[in-house]
Amino acid sequence: MSCFETYFVEPSPNHHRRSELTSKATHGRIAVFYQKLSKRGAKAIGTADGITACQMDIKVDGLSYDVLAKALEQARQGRLYILDKIHETIPEPREDYKDFVPRIEQIKIPKDFIGAVIGKGGEVIQKIQAETNTIINIEEEGEFGIVDVASQNKDDIAAALKWIKDICTVPEVGDVFDAKVVSIVEFGAFMEFLPGKEGLMHISEYEWGHPETLEGLIHVGDEFQVKVIAFDEKNGKIKLSRKALLPKPEGYVEEKPNRGPRREGGDRGRDRGPRREGNGGGERRSGGNGSGRRR
Fold first, then answer.
1. Which sign, positive or negative, has the C-alpha torsion 47, 51, 54, 56?
2. Among 79, 113, 196, 217, which one has the highest count of C-beta atoms within 10 angstroms of its own C-beta?
């Protein structure tokens, strides 16, 4: 709701008359200041529906009803005129400030993640501030960290907030992330999907089918979406999949890995040569207790 504020006075005939008219806009409100050397003055604030507040300074014994009524009517007409001009320019308040307006935004993060956001020796928070052109302040209150992010524009604050929220994110099975290839190994690729968080995409999880190698398919620095499919029960490492986000080809049949022909009897099928007599080359003599010794 817009408000209009007007100062009205009844000038004193014994004083030199001097007037000054100034206007300014603050948070959707217009204030018009009308000042004169006078023995009395009043202010009326209101909207198109009526007066919401008034104040009067008076240095004489009284004020006639006719003067007060006339002044309030003048204030009403002036208020409605200014409000009409405002509505012609901006009929309703904006949902947000313009992108280049300086601002401060605040979020809460779990207390346990304050250290991760700050980093060793402040390394992480300094990097966020440098790359997003923001100023970040963190205060610990109870079980939370209160994070204030200030910047000259909206986009920089959004980038810093996303960075901080990503650090505080705890991945779960089924979550999908934009990930970057950090390194490629024989059995797959390690992917960074959140700041400081990596997972393994096995070679079999790159696409439908069984590529023999990822060489030529991906490169360090490539970015694509992956899905968290499991956590390793032994070490807690995160398993990622690109294949889980791709449509399964029509008529696709999962092939079992080829392990080669199975050898009959394992090592027992190998020719070990002629068997030596005497159970190992020594003559065994039976004793009275059933034991024996070699010589």
1. positive
2. 79
Residues in the chain: 295
Contact assessment for residue 106 and residue 147, using Cβ atoms and an 8 Å cutoff: yes
Residue 23 has pLDDT above 70, yes or no: no
What are 40's two structure tokens? 């009395």
CATH code of 176-245, in short, is 2.40.50.140
Residues 222-248 pLDDT 10s: 999 999 999 987 887 899 999 999 888
Structure tokens at 121: 């020796």
| CA–CA dist 61, 184 (Å, integer) | 91
3-state secondary structure (DSSP) of residue 286 = strand
Rounded Cα–Cα distance for residues 113 and 90 (Å)? 43
Its pTM stands at: 0.53
Q: Regarding the domain delimited by 103-167, which CATH topology (the fold level of the hierarchy) does it fall under?
A: Ribosomal Protein S8; Chain: A, domain 1 (3.30.1370)
pLDDT digits (tens, 9 = 90+) for 102-147: 999 999 999 999 999 999 999 999 999 999 999 999 999 999 999 9
Identify whether the C-beta of residue 31 lies closer than 8 Å to the C-beta of residue 24.
yes
DSSP for 58-90 reads E-SS---HHHHHHHHHHHHHHHHHHHHHHHHH-
Q: How far apart are CA 238 and CA 172, in angstroms?
A: 9
